[in-house]
Amino acid sequence: MYLRLVYCEEAYQIAVRATFLGLMFSLGIFIKVYGEPSLQIFGVYMCIMAAFHYTEFLSIAIIQPSQVTTDSFVINHSREYAVAAITSWVEYFIEYYFFPSMKNFCWISNFGLVTCIIGEVLRKSAMFTAKSNFNHIVQCEKDPDHVLITHGIYGLCRHPSYVGWFYWSIGTQITLLNPVCTLAYAYVSWAFFRDRISIEELTLLNFFGRQYYDYQHKVGTGLPFIEGYRLKT
Q1: Rounded to an integer, what distance in angstroms lies between the CA atom of residue 233 and that of residue 231?
Q2: Handedness of CA 76, 89, 181, 110 (dihedral sign)
Q3: Closest Cα to residue 114, out of 34, 175, 204, 47?
Q4: Contact call for residues 137 and 6 (beta carbons, < 8 A)
Q5: Torsion of CA 88, 92, 94, 98, to 10 degrees
Protein backbone atom coordinates (compact mmCIF):
# COMPACT_ATOMS: atom_id res chain seq x y z
CA MET A 1 0.00 0.00 0.00
CA TYR A 2 2.87 2.38 0.83
CA LEU A 3 4.39 1.78 -2.60
CA ARG A 4 1.05 2.58 -4.24
CA LEU A 5 1.02 5.92 -2.46
CA VAL A 6 4.57 6.76 -3.46
CA TYR A 7 4.51 5.60 -7.09
CA CYS A 8 1.97 5.91 -9.86
CA GLU A 9 0.22 2.69 -10.83
CA GLU A 10 2.51 1.96 -13.81
CA ALA A 11 5.69 2.55 -11.80
CA TYR A 12 4.31 0.39 -9.00
CA GLN A 13 3.64 -2.49 -11.39
CA ILE A 14 7.15 -2.12 -12.83
CA ALA A 15 8.63 -2.19 -9.32
CA VAL A 16 6.67 -5.34 -8.46
CA ARG A 17 7.92 -7.16 -11.57
CA ALA A 18 11.51 -6.03 -11.05
CA THR A 19 11.41 -7.19 -7.41
CA PHE A 20 9.95 -10.53 -8.45
CA LEU A 21 12.72 -11.07 -11.02
CA GLY A 22 15.36 -10.09 -8.45
CA LEU A 23 13.97 -12.61 -5.97
CA MET A 24 13.81 -15.24 -8.69
CA PHE A 25 17.45 -14.63 -9.60
CA SER A 26 18.50 -14.81 -5.93
CA LEU A 27 16.56 -18.04 -5.38
CA GLY A 28 18.18 -19.48 -8.49
CA ILE A 29 21.65 -18.75 -7.11
CA PHE A 30 20.65 -20.31 -3.76
CA ILE A 31 19.45 -23.51 -5.47
CA LYS A 32 22.59 -23.64 -7.60
CA VAL A 33 24.86 -23.32 -4.55
CA TYR A 34 22.97 -25.41 -2.00
CA GLY A 35 20.70 -27.70 -4.02
CA GLU A 36 21.40 -31.33 -4.80
CA PRO A 37 23.29 -31.87 -8.09
CA SER A 38 20.27 -32.90 -10.18
CA LEU A 39 18.34 -29.83 -8.95
CA GLN A 40 21.11 -27.27 -9.41
CA ILE A 41 20.45 -26.87 -13.13
CA PHE A 42 16.96 -25.59 -12.34
CA GLY A 43 18.60 -22.87 -10.27
CA VAL A 44 20.72 -21.92 -13.29
CA TYR A 45 17.58 -21.88 -15.42
CA MET A 46 15.86 -19.52 -12.98
CA CYS A 47 18.81 -17.13 -13.22
CA ILE A 48 18.71 -17.29 -17.02
CA MET A 49 14.99 -16.47 -17.13
CA ALA A 50 15.20 -13.67 -14.58
CA ALA A 51 18.21 -12.08 -16.28
CA PHE A 52 16.60 -12.25 -19.73
CA HIS A 53 13.35 -10.57 -18.73
CA TYR A 54 15.02 -7.93 -16.58
CA THR A 55 17.55 -6.99 -19.27
CA GLU A 56 14.73 -6.76 -21.83
CA PHE A 57 13.16 -4.06 -19.70
CA LEU A 58 16.49 -2.39 -18.93
CA SER A 59 17.47 -2.29 -22.60
CA ILE A 60 14.21 -0.62 -23.62
CA ALA A 61 14.56 1.81 -20.71
CA ILE A 62 17.96 2.85 -22.06
CA ILE A 63 17.28 3.01 -25.81
CA GLN A 64 13.61 4.08 -25.74
CA PRO A 65 12.75 5.45 -22.28
CA SER A 66 9.52 7.02 -23.52
CA GLN A 67 8.25 3.57 -24.58
CA VAL A 68 8.80 1.82 -21.24
CA THR A 69 5.80 -0.06 -19.82
CA THR A 70 5.25 -3.22 -17.81
CA ASP A 71 5.13 -5.05 -21.15
CA SER A 72 8.81 -4.16 -21.66
CA PHE A 73 9.69 -7.08 -19.38
CA VAL A 74 8.11 -9.41 -21.98
CA ILE A 75 6.94 -11.60 -19.10
CA ASN A 76 3.38 -11.65 -20.45
CA HIS A 77 4.59 -12.12 -24.03
CA SER A 78 1.68 -14.39 -24.98
CA ARG A 79 -0.42 -17.26 -23.74
CA GLU A 80 1.66 -19.62 -25.87
CA TYR A 81 4.86 -18.37 -24.23
CA ALA A 82 3.42 -19.08 -20.77
CA VAL A 83 2.25 -22.55 -21.83
CA ALA A 84 5.70 -23.34 -23.24
CA ALA A 85 7.39 -22.29 -20.01
CA ILE A 86 5.03 -24.32 -17.81
CA THR A 87 5.41 -27.35 -20.09
CA SER A 88 9.20 -27.19 -19.67
CA TRP A 89 8.83 -27.11 -15.89
CA VAL A 90 6.50 -30.11 -15.97
CA GLU A 91 8.92 -32.11 -18.10
CA TYR A 92 11.87 -31.17 -15.89
CA PHE A 93 10.22 -32.23 -12.62
CA ILE A 94 8.73 -35.44 -14.06
CA GLU A 95 12.18 -36.49 -15.27
CA TYR A 96 13.80 -35.22 -12.06
CA TYR A 97 11.45 -37.40 -9.98
CA PHE A 98 11.43 -40.57 -12.08
CA PHE A 99 14.83 -40.38 -13.81
CA PRO A 100 17.07 -38.16 -11.65
CA SER A 101 20.22 -39.45 -13.37
CA MET A 102 19.05 -37.67 -16.55
CA LYS A 103 19.69 -34.35 -14.83
CA ASN A 104 23.33 -35.02 -13.96
CA PHE A 105 24.97 -34.33 -17.34
CA CYS A 106 26.42 -31.01 -16.25
CA TRP A 107 28.56 -30.53 -19.35
CA ILE A 108 25.48 -30.65 -21.58
CA SER A 109 23.65 -28.25 -19.26
CA ASN A 110 26.64 -25.90 -19.34
CA PHE A 111 26.52 -25.99 -23.13
CA GLY A 112 22.91 -24.83 -22.86
CA LEU A 113 23.99 -21.99 -20.57
CA VAL A 114 26.63 -20.88 -23.08
CA THR A 115 24.00 -21.01 -25.85
CA CYS A 116 21.72 -18.78 -23.77
CA ILE A 117 24.53 -16.29 -23.17
CA ILE A 118 25.38 -16.14 -26.88
CA GLY A 119 21.70 -15.66 -27.70
CA GLU A 120 21.42 -12.87 -25.12
CA VAL A 121 24.49 -11.10 -26.50
CA LEU A 122 23.09 -11.28 -30.03
CA ARG A 123 19.68 -9.98 -29.02
CA LYS A 124 20.93 -7.14 -26.84
CA SER A 125 23.52 -6.17 -29.46
CA ALA A 126 20.67 -5.90 -31.96
CA MET A 127 18.62 -3.75 -29.61
CA PHE A 128 21.46 -1.34 -28.85
CA THR A 129 22.50 -1.14 -32.49
CA ALA A 130 18.96 -0.35 -33.66
CA LYS A 131 18.32 1.96 -30.68
CA SER A 132 15.10 3.94 -31.25
CA ASN A 133 14.33 1.85 -34.34
CA PHE A 134 13.82 -1.26 -32.19
CA ASN A 135 10.36 -2.20 -30.97
CA HIS A 136 8.93 -5.31 -29.35
CA ILE A 137 5.86 -5.01 -31.58
CA VAL A 138 5.89 -5.17 -35.38
CA GLN A 139 5.05 -1.65 -36.57
CA CYS A 140 2.34 -1.16 -39.20
CA GLU A 141 3.07 2.52 -39.80
CA LYS A 142 6.48 4.06 -40.46
CA ASP A 143 7.64 6.55 -37.85
CA PRO A 144 9.19 9.71 -39.37
CA ASP A 145 12.45 8.97 -37.54
CA HIS A 146 12.52 5.28 -38.48
CA VAL A 147 15.60 4.39 -40.53
CA LEU A 148 16.84 1.08 -41.93
CA ILE A 149 19.74 -0.29 -39.88
CA THR A 150 22.25 -2.33 -41.89
CA HIS A 151 25.49 -1.80 -39.98
CA GLY A 152 27.01 -3.63 -37.02
CA ILE A 153 25.30 -6.90 -36.13
CA TYR A 154 22.70 -6.16 -38.85
CA GLY A 155 25.47 -6.51 -41.41
CA LEU A 156 25.74 -10.19 -40.43
CA CYS A 157 22.03 -11.07 -40.40
CA ARG A 158 18.79 -9.20 -41.01
CA HIS A 159 17.08 -10.26 -37.79
CA PRO A 160 19.73 -10.61 -35.04
CA SER A 161 17.24 -10.05 -32.23
CA TYR A 162 15.17 -13.01 -33.45
CA VAL A 163 18.28 -15.12 -33.98
CA GLY A 164 19.33 -14.38 -30.41
CA TRP A 165 15.91 -15.22 -28.97
CA PHE A 166 15.71 -18.40 -31.07
CA TYR A 167 18.97 -19.82 -29.75
CA TRP A 168 18.31 -18.50 -26.24
CA SER A 169 14.98 -20.36 -26.08
CA ILE A 170 16.58 -23.63 -27.19
CA GLY A 171 19.44 -23.06 -24.77
CA THR A 172 17.04 -22.84 -21.82
CA GLN A 173 15.84 -26.39 -22.53
CA ILE A 174 19.35 -27.75 -23.04
CA THR A 175 20.23 -26.18 -19.69
CA LEU A 176 17.33 -28.07 -18.10
CA LEU A 177 18.33 -31.27 -19.93
CA ASN A 178 14.78 -31.50 -21.29
CA PRO A 179 15.03 -33.67 -24.45
CA VAL A 180 11.37 -33.38 -25.42
CA CYS A 181 11.09 -29.63 -24.91
CA THR A 182 14.44 -29.02 -26.60
CA LEU A 183 13.06 -30.46 -29.83
CA ALA A 184 9.64 -28.86 -29.33
CA TYR A 185 11.10 -25.43 -28.60
CA ALA A 186 13.37 -25.65 -31.64
CA TYR A 187 10.47 -26.38 -33.99
CA VAL A 188 7.89 -24.04 -32.42
CA SER A 189 10.36 -21.14 -32.17
CA TRP A 190 11.45 -21.70 -35.76
CA ALA A 191 7.85 -21.74 -36.99
CA PHE A 192 7.01 -18.62 -34.96
CA PHE A 193 9.93 -16.61 -36.32
CA ARG A 194 9.31 -17.87 -39.88
CA ASP A 195 5.83 -16.35 -39.78
CA ARG A 196 6.83 -13.23 -37.85
CA ILE A 197 9.75 -12.45 -40.16
CA SER A 198 7.51 -12.84 -43.21
CA ILE A 199 5.02 -10.34 -41.78
CA GLU A 200 7.71 -7.93 -40.61
CA GLU A 201 9.57 -7.96 -43.91
CA LEU A 202 6.39 -7.18 -45.81
CA THR A 203 6.05 -4.00 -43.73
CA LEU A 204 9.76 -3.19 -44.11
CA LEU A 205 9.48 -3.47 -47.89
CA ASN A 206 6.56 -1.06 -47.72
CA PHE A 207 8.58 1.29 -45.51
CA PHE A 208 11.90 1.26 -47.35
CA GLY A 209 11.17 -0.17 -50.80
CA ARG A 210 14.24 -0.78 -52.94
CA GLN A 211 16.59 -0.08 -50.05
CA TYR A 212 15.26 -3.07 -48.10
CA TYR A 213 14.97 -5.20 -51.24
CA ASP A 214 18.69 -4.76 -51.90
CA TYR A 215 19.47 -5.45 -48.23
CA GLN A 216 17.54 -8.72 -48.41
CA HIS A 217 19.69 -9.91 -51.29
CA LYS A 218 22.94 -9.05 -49.53
CA VAL A 219 22.26 -10.36 -46.00
CA GLY A 220 20.45 -13.50 -44.83
CA THR A 221 17.87 -13.67 -42.05
CA GLY A 222 20.29 -15.51 -39.75
CA LEU A 223 17.84 -18.34 -39.06
CA PRO A 224 18.14 -21.74 -40.76
CA PHE A 225 15.84 -22.37 -43.75
CA ILE A 226 14.04 -19.02 -43.33
CA GLU A 227 14.32 -16.66 -46.29
CA GLY A 228 11.76 -14.11 -45.19
CA TYR A 229 9.24 -12.35 -47.44
CA ARG A 230 10.42 -12.23 -51.03
CA LEU A 231 8.96 -10.09 -53.77
CA LYS A 232 8.20 -12.04 -56.92
CA THR A 233 10.08 -10.68 -59.91
Answers
A1: 6
A2: positive
A3: 175
A4: no
A5: 160
